[in-house]
Amino acid sequence: MNLDFSDDQKFLKEEARKFLEKENALARNRNVLENESHIDEELWKKIVALGWTGIRIPEEYGGLGLGHLELCVIAEELGRFLAPVPFSSSVYLFTEALIIYGSDEIKKELLPQLISGDAIGTIAVTEEFFAPIAENINVTCNNGKINGKKIAVPDAGIATHVIVVAKSNKGVSLNIVDLTSEGVSVEHQENIDESRGHFSITFDNVDSQLLGDAVSGWDLYETLINQAAVLFSYEQIGGSQAALDMAVNYAKERYAFGRPIGSYQAIKHKLADMYIALTLAKSNCYYAAWALSTNSSDLASASATARVSSTKAFQLCSKENIQTHGGNGFTWEYDCHMFYRRSKLLSLNLGSLSNWREKLVTSLEQSNIN
Amino acid sequence: MDFKDTQEEAKFRKKCRDWLEKNASPKDDSTPQNDDFANKDKMKAAKEWQKKKYDAGWAMLHWPKEYGGIGASSMERIIWANEESKFDVPKGIFEIGLGMCGPVMMEYATEEQKERYLPPMAEGKEIWCQLFSEPSAGSDVAGLRSKAVKDGDKWIINGQKVWTSGAHFSDFGILVVRHDPNIEKHKGMTFFFVDMKSPGIEVKPIKQITGGSSFNEVYFTDVEIPDSQRLGEIGDGWKVAITTLMNERLAVGDAGGADVEDAFRWAKNQDNLGEPLLNNSAARESIADWYCEKSGLKNTKLRTMSALSRGETPGPEASITKIVSAGKLQDIGNFGIDSLDMAGMLKTENDDIRGFQNAWLGAPGLRIAGGTDEILRNIIAERVLGLPQDPRADKGVAFKDIPSGNS
What is the ipTM of this complex? Predict the structure, then answer.
C-alpha cells in the first residue's frame, strides 16, 4: 500500500514551498489585486526559470518530461500562496490540451514557447451568464474562421493563445487562436478576484488551428477538464490549508473576555470542521492524483470526487477564516479576503460546485457503484 | 503511488487467507450480521472460533511474544482483520478484553496474575469488560464517584457504572473508582480488576432507543476486591485509565450500516412523485456529498496504511473517521426513511427499509459512544491544531468541592 508521493516528489514540493515563501507570493497577490495588473511578471519569469511550465512536456519538445504527480505537488503550493500567475489556465488547461490532442506540428510550434513563457495559453468556453454545454455554444468555426464572443475567460489579457470551444455544422470543436491575430478583441471584465483577470474575447473572422477532430470537441473538452479538475483540486487544498493555518494562528493570539478565542469551543469546533473538510478533500485528491497519473478507468468519478470535496473545503475554510478573524477579517488590510476570492475563482473556473456534484452522480450512474 | 502489498505483506496475507479458507466459510453478504451474544448458541460459536484462532496463533496478533502473541505490526493486524472480515465468523465479543484489558494487565499485573488471566482471555474462555463511565461521568470520565474504601488488605467498592458493553456475560472487568474525594479530581482515583461474579455486583441491561440492549448498568454494593487486584499505585487510577481510553478512541472507527451505495441503489428504484428518486436534484446532491465523505474516509485510511506499511507513524488524519461516518449514517438513514413519505413510519420486512430505520435509530448512539462529536472536535482542535484548552472549573480543587449541579 503506497498512497503517497515519492521522496523526490515531496522534495520538489518542499522546494516549491520555500521558493514561493521567499518570493512572498501572497504579498505579490495583494499587489496584483490592488493594481489590477492581472499577473506578477517577475514571479512568472522565475517560475518559468524553474521549469514548472514544462513539467509535463516531453523532453523531445524541451520539457522536463515528468508526470502528473509532480504537477500536483506544485499546484498545491501555488494554491497555498495564491500565486498571481496564469499557471492554471496555461499549464493545467492549455498545455495539457496540446499534450493530449495536439498534432506533432502544433506541439513543435507551441510547446517550446509555453516552456519559455513566450506563450501563455487559456481556454474560452463561456458565452452567457449560465453554464456552457455542447448545445448552447454559439461561437462558430467555419473553414477555420472563428466568429462570436466569449466571456469570463481567465487570464486572456495576458495570454498569447486561446483554445476556443466553437461549433460548426459538423459539431463542436476545439480551436487554437493566436490572440495577436487580426479580428481578435480582448476586453477586461471586472471580476471578484482581480488578482487573476477575466476578459471577454470577440472574434471577427479569426484564423484558427483545429485541435483534435471537428466533431467530438465537447467530449475532448470534458476529458480535459476531468484531468484539470485534479490539479485545480490541489490548488484548492493548498489554499484551504493556508486559510486554516491563518485562522488557527489568529485564534491562538486573539484574546476576548480574558482568554484566547481559540479556547472557546465555538471557535474550536469551527476550526475542527475546517480540518475535517480539508482532510477528506486531501485524501480524495491523493486518490485522484493516482487515477490521473495512471489514466485509471475511474478518473471521471475520482476527479469529480476530489473536485467536489476540495471546492467545499476551500469555500468552508476561506469563509470561516474570515469569521474567526471577526471585524479584522472583513477589512481589505487582512489577507482573509484574498483566500475568499480565490476560493470562488478556483471553484468557478471549471464549472460550479452544483454542476460538479451532478457530474459525480452521473459518473456513478455510469459505473454503477452498487 | 500504488495499492499493492509489499512482498512481505503479500506473504502474510496469503498465510492469513490460507488458514481462514481451511477453517471458516466465506461471508454471504445477503445475511445480516447478528451479534446478539446474549444468545447462548452465538456465544458458544464465538468462543469456539476464538479457541480455534488461539490454537493456531491468530487470536491476539498484537500481543508481545511473551504473552502468546506474535508481536505483529500494525500493518499485519490490518491485513488479518481485512481478511477475517471476508469470512462468516463471530466478531466483536473479545475485542474489549484483548484490546483494552489485556494491555493494562500486561503492564500492571504481577507475573502470577498474568499467567493466570492472560491465556484464558486470549483463548476466549474468559470474557472481560471495562467499567469506567458512570451516570454523572460521561465525556468527563474523571468525574466518576464510585467509592473505594480500604479495609485491611481489601477494598470495599460502592457505586454505579454504566454503558458497560458485555457486562452481562463477562467474567472479569477492569474498574476505576475514587478512593479519596478530598484531593484533586485526577489524583483521587485507583484502578482494579474485579471478578464479575463477586457478591454485591448486579448487572442490569439498558434498553436503548433501538430497542436492543448492548450495554448495561453495573451496581456495586459493598463489593470486596483484594488489594492484590489493584493495578498501579493508589492514586494512579487516571494514568492507568487514560492508556485504555486512548486504545478505545482508536478502536471505535468506521460506523457500519447503511451507506452511500445503499442510498444510491435505493434512489434508483424508489418512486418519487412519479419518477425515480434519483432524478431529484436534492437527492443527487446528497448522494454526491456522501460519496465524497465515504471516499474521503476510505482514502484517509489508505494514507494511514501507507505510512504504517513504511514503518512510519501515521499523521493525525484518522481522527476524523468516527465523526464523519456517524453523521453520515444518521443522514443516510433519514434520507431513506424520508423517501417513503408517510409510510416511512412503518416497520416492514424490507431489508433496505429496515437498514435505513436501523441506521437512523442507531446513529445517535454512534455519535456519542467512544467520544461524542463534541469531545472529538475538542480533541482535533487541541491535539491536532494545537489550540489552548478551555479554562476549567475543576483544576486545583478537591473533588468534593467541584460544582456538580443536581446530577
Answer: 0.96
